[in-house]
Write a structure and sequence with these properties.
By secondary structure, the protein is α+β, with helices and mostly antiparallel strands. It has two helices and four strands. It has a single domain, classed as Alpha-Beta Plaits, CATH 3.30.70.20. A two-stranded antiparallel ribbon has the order 1-4.
């Protein structure tokens, strides 16, 4: 499973606050980086929850 952050992400930072080990603010690009290319099994449910919690549905999960 992979997750991409869409361009229309509003950089609210909620995903970073809730899951700082997975989502990281990139101060150079001002984008949200994902710690993994391939989401580890142990974090898949957390990523799905983060995607559900994103107010603008900017997390695109690819199975
Ligand atoms: S919660 Fe959604 S809109 Fe907010 S920073 Fe994360 S991906 Fe972007």
């Amino acid at each position: 499973m992979r997750v991409e952050i869409a361009d229309y992400c509003i950089r609210c930072g909620i995903c970073i606050d809730l899951y700082p080990d997975i989502f990281i603010r990139n101060w150079e690009t001002h984008n949200i980086d994902v710690a993994y290319d391939e989401i580890p099994e142990k974090d898949k449910e957390r990523v799905k929850q983060a995607a559900a919690d994103c107010a603008v549905a900017a997390m695109i999960i690819k199975e």
